[in-house]
Amino acid sequence: MESRNILSTASQNALPSGVRRMFELAKKYPDAINLTLGEPGFTTPQHIIDAGIKGLKEKKTKYTPNAGIKELRNAIAYKLEKENGIKCNPDKNLIVTAGATQALMLSMITLVNPGDEVIIQGPNWPDYRGQIDMVNAKTVYAKVDESNNFKMTADIIEPLISDKTKLIIINSPSNPTGGVLDYEDLLKIAELVKKYKIFVISDEPYEMLVYDGFHQHSLAAFEGLEDYVLTINSFSKTFAMTGFRVGYICANEKITENLVKLHENMIASVPEPMQLAAVEAIYNGEKDVQEMVKYYDRNRHLIVDGLNKINGFSCLCPNGAFYVFPNITGFGMNSRKAAEYILEKTHVVTSPGDAFGPDGEGYIRICYASKYDDIQEALARMEKAFGTKSR
Predict the structure, then answer these.
(1) How far apart are CA 358 and CA 353, in angstroms?
(2) How do 94-97 and 247-250 pair as beta strands?
(3) Which of 180, 204, 258, 310 sits between 20 and 30 A of 248, alpha carbons compared?
(4) Interatomic CA distance for residues 114 and 311, integer angstroms
(5) Angle at which helices 99-111 and 126-134 cross, to 10°
(6) Helix, strand or coil, per DSSP, at residue 22
(7) pTM score
(8) Averages of pLDDT over each 10 residues, the chain, 391 residues
């Protein structure tokens, strides 16, 4: 009887966000420069907003098919073949979701049973761990660090595979590190998947945010992985559409059928005007993305060069996303204390590395999708507070 009043294990074990915690601490500093949240530094392009408004004006405010409107599924299939080399049937292999976050949760519920093991990168986006806990599975961390450019490669994954391993989550470009997997890295992971016949989620919301001529490949494009790989993506980061909440999953027909059934029980469908805005983004948003990437690249060089001149920091130059993950062991304190110390001394808000799992200790995350001038000011404050390295 008493157990009726006890909250679920998942809710009680859920960890508060270390990123949000810093966001709250910063409120007492009116001049704080916030470099925490992974929010694109752009407003959604106007033509994409207009497509959503047009849908509203045309009174497209009813339920849509659970899998998403035909126009968007066709557009996504076109995009996947053209840009990712993934051939899919829009009627059998695609489902539109409320962003990549819901896509991940939906996939987790579809694939994973209580007691199964899920391998994720450490450090990692915190919601992976939270969602694994919600399905009563076990998180297994594949530790990455500066020595291999924060890459979760096959040689790191394979020793962690056991008879309980049900799923591997690949995130490239990565949040929080900005690390990317190249073609050869993904080829070896593909061979691993075929060898052990394990499901893989390839989480690709930052795929277009890559630099120095790098091209991000998709794991699902490799031959023989149709039954194992689920490709998840969203419009949030690429097109600065975080508030639209539109994402998708591409998977084989059997998996997709089950995704759709469970999706109906979670949110039923994504609002049609938001889906129409996503259609516009796919067909007419390429130039917008190019401009955003150019801007982020400029910020990337500014933040990396600036941090590496300041005492206490050591920062690799990432190849993707819009985060840096500098080593802050030079401060002689753990990541949480270092982030609080930086905030206190400079009023610059960063995220402690331990917010991204135990393997994030010794680092902080900084989002450089902000305004260029804000990053310049943040660096100037830190340089004044901590001094520069002697040459």
Answers:
(1) 8
(2) antiparallel
(3) 180
(4) 46
(5) 40
(6) helix
(7) 0.95
(8) 73 73 86 91 96 98 97 98 97 98 97 97 95 95 94 98 98 97 98 97 97 95 96 97 97 97 95 98 97 97 98 97 97 96 96 94 96 97 94 61
